[in-house]
């Protein structure tokens, strides 16, 4: 069982990690999301599945297709995070309190219950891991995709200079 308190912006991998946790709490004035399409990438199927396990299907579809980065408030409103804390200390306390709600739950029952919710996605990940990786590498190494990634990184770099 894991809770997460991102202490900054959580694009891409930070968002994926959050979707794998039981409890997500965030500080205000940060963003979270899967922004891959903004720079020409397609999120792999296992990432899409994890995102869909947290968000309603239509919201997940739109967010992935748009490369949407949610503000902390938007993420709370759509269910991408569970709570918002004003300080890091408050966030840690909220996470601890949530995780303690499982203290009387038998892990031997909780684990198979969780598997019933996420097992099909894990099976698909295992079954298609090699094919998904090959497809991703083939896609991401294309010249036009590399160019888009370069332009996106340049844009981020220029933004930090200002």
From TrEMBL:
Signal peptide start and end residues: none
InterPro entries per UniProt: ClpP/crotonase-like_dom_sf, Enoyl-CoA_hydra/iso
| GO cellular component terms, semicolon-separated | mitochondrion
Which Pfam families does the record cross-reference, listed alphabetically? ECH_1
Residues passing through the membrane, by range: none
State the source organism's domain of life: Eukaryota
GO aspect biological process, one term:
fatty acid beta-oxidation
List the PANTHER family.
Answer: ENOYL-COA DELTA ISOMERASE 1, MITOCHONDRIAL, ENOYL-COA HYDRATASE-RELATED
Which protein is depicted?
Enoyl-CoA hydratase/isomerase
Q: Which organism is this entry from?
A: Musca domestica (House fly)
């Amino acid at each position: 069982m894991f809770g997460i308190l991102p202490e900054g912006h959580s694009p891409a991998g930070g968002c994926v990690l959050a979707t794998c946790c039981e409890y997500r709490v965030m500080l205000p004035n940060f963003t979270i999301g899967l922004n891959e399409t903004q720079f020409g990438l397609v999120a792999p199927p296992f990432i899409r599945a994890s995102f869909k396990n947290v968000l309603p299907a239509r919201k997940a579809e739109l967010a992935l297709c748009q490369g949407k980065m949610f503000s902390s408030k938007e993420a709370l409103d759509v269910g991408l995070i569970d709570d918002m804390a004003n300080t890091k200390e408050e966030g840690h306390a909220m996470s601890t309190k949530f995780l303690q709600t499982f203290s009387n739950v038998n892990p031997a029952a909780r684990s198979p219950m969780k598997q019933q919710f996420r097992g099909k996605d894990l099976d698909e990940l295992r079954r298609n891991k090699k094919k998904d990786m090959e497809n991703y590498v083939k896609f991401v190494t294309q010249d036009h995709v590399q160019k888009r990634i370069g332009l996106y990184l340049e844009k981020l770099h220029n933004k930090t200079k200002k």
